[in-house]
Amino acid sequence: MKIVAVNVEKFHYRSKIVRDSEGHGHPGPEQDAVQSLLTIKTDDGASGSYFGAIETGTVEHIVAPVLVGEDPFYRERIWHALKERQRLNLSALPDRVLTAVDLALWDLAGRVLGQPVHRLLGAARDKVPAYASTMVGDDLQGGLDTPEAYARFALACKERGYPAFKLHTWQPPLPGAPSVKRDLAACAAVREALGPDVPLMLDPFHYYSRLEALELARGLEGLHFLWMEEPMDEHSMSSFVWLCEQTSLPICGPETAEGKMYTRAEWIKAGACDMVRGGVGDVGGITPLVKVAHLAEAFGMHMEVHGGGVGNLHVLCAMATPGLYYERGLLHPFVDYDAPLPWLNESVDPMDDEGYVHVSPKPGLGMDINFDYISDNRVGNRELSLRV
Ligand code: LLH
Ligand code: MG
């Protein structure tokens, strides 16, 4: 079996999420947005797909020359070949492209073998408890604008079935943000509303100083939080070693730091985290994320997976020393997260009333893609019809 084509289809959709100048998502007026579907095809008619922000030129000039002619089951060889091309092409070939290629290859393998990806990896479970992960704070009335608003939303999430809750608090460019005092007020309000037993986590501003991060950590120790992630710039690993030495609060990371599984190994070795973190989008796919999971297991650590989506869910279902939770979100009082994305016929992370997210038993990644929606809204199509 040989790969004969790698395609990118760009299509329009309507989104109600707007990005602020720092890139954080918030609810907002409906506007046009563009998504891409990457598909890898073989000479015997098999295919695998995944979505992402992928440039057609990158696929044409860098990805396809590596993939075409390869056996699609040689994922490890393909992943390393692409990773090596990143050295002199990092801006054209970011990790998100490696992620999309790797996930499409896992999808293809599962479809060919008639098995869902978590079973190919070696399944440990078919469902994972989720935590409600909020959007960052805002100034929208009835949104996430006050500590009390977080408390009200936390109660609504508990009622929906979520067994745990994570706050993303206020960040620039919001006036008055960031503030350690306000972050702690929101965390205290949520603890008060949910009672002493619900696991809580905080993901605050990512550029606090050491002393600000320590002040937060001390406050969260008293509120019995389960972990804090990314309070400081993760490029300063020494700051995280320093923080871990000062606080009994578990520190979870690194999340956004570049460097794939290599960075995670360094953090574990240096004592810069108590729980290691990574997601398919952070490290370049399922192939490297499984390595982080095995590394964590060998050190007796939890790997807390960053972000949702099918790839992360399959990895979580194949982990023997489990990640404690699936990150479901980002959630907001104004957003209906349970509604499937417009290009899918069903949600990729359905959650039951007990707060478990169930992995799809379908072959491959198990996404039910609405191909009619994609072809009806293809970027070229829409432009053509606009010109008529
Ligand atoms: O800043 C944000 O919008 C969120 O923190 C986002 O990056 C989210 O993916 C995250 O950190 N989750 O843990
Ligand atoms: Mg985070």
Describe the 3D structure.
The protein has 388 residues and is an alpha/beta fold. It has 2 domains: 3-114 and 372-385, Enolase-like, domain 1; 119-358, TIM Barrel (Alpha-Beta Barrel), CATH 3.20.20. The chain has 14 helices and 12 strands. It has helices at 56-67, 75-86, 95-113, 117-121, 147-160, 180-194, 210-222, 237-246, 260-270, 280-283, 286-298, 310-316, 371-376, 379-387; strands at 3-19, 25-42, 47-52, 127-134, 164-168, 200-203, 227-229, 251-252, 276-278, 303-305, 326-331, 356-358. Strands 4, 5, 6, 7, 8, 11 and 12 form a 7-stranded mixed beta sheet that branches. Strands 1-2-3 form a 3-stranded antiparallel beta sheet. The chain has a two-stranded parallel sheet with strand order 9-10. The longest helix is centred in the first third of the chain and has 19 residues, at 95-113. The protein is globular, with a radius of gyration of 21 Å. The N and C termini lie far apart (43 Å). The model is unreliable at 382-388 (pLDDT under 50). Bound molecules: ligand LLH and magnesium ion. Ligand LLH is lined by residues 24-25, 133, 136, 168, 203, 255, 306-307, 327.
